[in-house]
Amino acid sequence: MLIDDLLKKxxxxxxxxxxxxxxxFILNLLKVHLEKTNKPFLSQPRRIGFDAYAPxxxxxxxxxxxxxxxxxxxxxxxxRLIDQIIxxxxxxxxxxxxxxxxxxxxxxxxxxxxxxxxxxxxxxxLPFKITIWGPEEINKIVAKNRKExxxxxxxxxxxxxxxxxxxxxxxxxxxxxxxxxxxxRLYKKGQFSFFLGAGVxxxxxxxxxxxxxxxxxVTYLTNEFDNESKIxxxxxxxxxxxxxxxxxPSALMAARYLRKGLDNRNTESEEFTKTITQNxxxxxxxxxxxxxxxxxxxxxxxxxxxxxxxxxxxxxxNFDDLIERQLEAQSIQHHSxxxxxxxxxxxxxxxxxxxxxxxxxxxxxESLDKSTLVFSEEGYHLIYSDSYHxxxxxxxxxxxxxxxxxxxxxxxxxxxxxxxxIASRNSDKTRHFAFMKRLTVDSFTHIKDKQVIDxxxxxxxxxxxxxxxxxxxxxxxxxxxxxxTDYNEIPKMLREIKK
Length: 499
Hints:
Elements (H helix, E strand, L loop, with lengths): L2 H7 L5 H22 L5 E2 L8 E3 L10 E5 L8 H15 L7 E5 L6 H13 L5 E5 L1 H10 L1 H9 L1 H10 L6 H18 L2 E5 L1 H5 L6 H17 L7 H15 L3 H12 L7 H13 L10 H10 L8 E6 L5 H8 L4 E4 L11 E5 L23 H9 L4 H12 L1 E5 L6 H10 L8 E6 L3 H5 E2 L2 E2 L4 H21 L2 E6 L4 H10 L1
Parallel strand pairs: 3-4, 4-5, 6-7, 6-10, 7-9, 8-9, 10-11, 11-14
Antiparallel strand pairs: 1-2, 2-3, 12-13
Helix pairs in contact: 2-5, 2-6, 2-7, 8-21, 10-11, 10-12, 10-13, 14-15, 14-21, 17-18
C-alpha cells in the first residue's frame, strides 16, 4: 500500500480527526521502520514538544532529529511557525538535543515553497537544519514496510485508542503548567476569547439547572393547586424530588413541560421569562459573593493592557448578568449582545449571550423580548437546526478566528461539540482549551469516607485511562483539557495566564 491509497481512506477535510488518523499512521510506520534498523524512536500522544524524536536520525538524516507532522504546511505562516519552534526548542533542547527538524506532510510540496520555507528559516540562523517530507518521501518508507504499512492502515482506529489509553502514566500537573505557559503566550497575542458556562455563575451562588427547574415546578404546582387545597412549598418539594427520582426527565424535556404549564402559547412569553428571572435571582445562595474569585479573575483578564485589549470577546451560555456587573465595577467598556440585529462598537468588549439574556434589572437593557431564550426544547431545537442563527455564527466565528478558553462548561452540549467539529476542519493542532474536573482516586473509591471500591490500584489504572481517553476525544474537537481537582484552582490559573 502506498501513501496515496491511504489518503483515499482518510477524509483530509475531516479536521482534527483526519489529521490524527494521518499522524497515527506516520508515527506507527516510523516506529516499525526504525525498529528494523535498530534505531531508537520516541513518540506518544500529547507530547510536550514535537511529535516524535529520533535520537540517531532517520534514513539519510544521520543525527538527532525532531519530527513534526503538519497536515497543511503551506497554509501555516512561517514566522508564526518559527516562533513556536524557537519556544519549543528552549524547553526541550536539554533533554532531547537535536540538530535536525523534519516536517512530514501528506500534501505535495512545490520546489518554490520548499525554497521559500528554507529561506525563512535561514534568516533566523537557527541551530538546526530543516527537512520536508511529502508523499514521495513517505512512499519510500512505505515501500520498505509494505506488510506493516497495510496492517497499520487497516487498524488505525484501534491504534489511536490504544496509544491514548495505554500510554504510561504522565505528570498531569506538570503538563498543566506547560499549557498555562502556552496560554499566557497566546493571551499576549490578543486573539483570545472566553466561552463561559454554568460553573462560572455557580461560583457566585446562582442556582444550577435542577434547582431552577425544581423552583419553577413549585411555582407551577402552587398556581395549579391554589384553588383546590393549600399545599406547602415543602410538600411540593417532596413531590418534585420524588417525581425526579422516578421519571428522571431530561432537563430540556422538563423545561418544555414547565413552559407549557406556565404559559399556554407556543413561544416564550413575557410572563414566562419574568417567572424564570424572578426564580433565577431569588435562588442565589447569598452566602457566596456575587463577585466571586472566578468572576473577578475572568474580568481581570478582560482589562485592556498598555498594548491594547487581549480578550476579543466573551461568549456566555448563562442567562444572568453577573459578568456585566463585574465589568461595570471595573469600569471596562462592554456591550451585551443577545439579538441578531445588534452592532458592536470597536471600543467595547462584546459579551454574547448566545442562549438568551435575563438581567435582574431589565430596564437597563433594550429589546430583551427579541432574545431567543434557550430554556426549553423548542428554543434549543430552533438554534440547533438553524445553521445561520446569529448565535451559531458568533460561536463559529470565534472558534475559527481565536484561541478560546472554556470555563465552567461540561463540554457535553451537542451544539457546541458540533460547532467545534466544524471549526476544527482544515486545522492541524488544538487551538482551544477547557478547564475540566479530574476525578481523584479517593473521591472515586469512597463515598462519605466509606470505601465502595476494593481494588484501589485497579481503580487508579482505570481513572488514568479514563482521563487519557477523555483527552483524546476532546483533542479530536480541537480542544486541549486543563485538569483541576478543586474549583478554587481555576482563578489562580487564570491569573497565571494573565501574568
